[in-house]
Amino acid sequence: MPELPEVEALRDFLAEHLVGHEVVRVLPVAISVLKTYDPPVSALEGRKVTAVRRHGKFLDIEADGLHFVTHLARAGWLHWKDRLPDGPPRPGKGPLALRVALETGEGFDLTEAGTQKRLAVYVVRDPGEIPGVARLGPDPLAADFDETRFAQLLEGERRQLKGALRDQSLIAGVGNAYSDEILHAARMSPFKLAAALTPEETHRLYEALRSTLAEAVERSHGLAAGRLKAEKKSGLRVHGRAGEPCPVCGDTIHEVSFSDSALQYCPTCQTGGKPLADRRMSKLLK
After folding, report:
1. Would you say 63 and 13 are in contact if contact means Cβ atoms under 8 Å apart?
2. N or C: which terminal CB in the chain sees fewer CB atoms within 10 Å?
3. Which ranges constitute the DSSP H helices of 159-227?
């Protein structure tokens, strides 16, 4: 799933390629991708793109007062085309969900792999009309997101750190992959209770949160949209690397599986050398 660093890189790329250009066609291929109907997507046609913004994991393309907002979900992606194919796309069983064409002949496709169709597109007058945007917590890379604010968010938070970091209403933009990376950098168990953090641990987690995301954004800066997935994977130290050696201590990276996801961690760096039991099989070791 694209998370804050990849969506920010897409925002940067699209701002360079879209702003100042006219949208001439918006062509839905999978109607299920459309989550709003008034205004219709056709209302974007003939409008000039004035800005591209990011709200957590949401991309927001503004065109003369209307907002084309998309959430790529788990298996969605944006593919930039220097030259779009001639003729309208044909509906079918392929991954193509929607196409946006500019007056230059350039544009982009939104695609979604797999059978779980969660890619979402909204056309609204105000992004705040979208429930997922309206409920977002603060952006962890915002200038005013300081350690005091972070500590206030965690105060009284009885959930485990892994779940708290992924809650978009608490902190916007962090998903499964970067929560693993942040906790590894902070040297903390994913199952430690957020409310149990000492001031020193809160400081460590805050620094890990900001630095991990900022470094990932920096690595992705300037990359074409098609290269962002590979860059994300190459930069991850523990997520998706079960069975490999930890790049910090050399211990074997372990995994805990859930019904629809998995987390990875280093026992030496994060849990005092104790492996965490698979949640599906037995009680977690703390």
Report:
1. no
2. C
3. 161-166, 176-186, 199-220
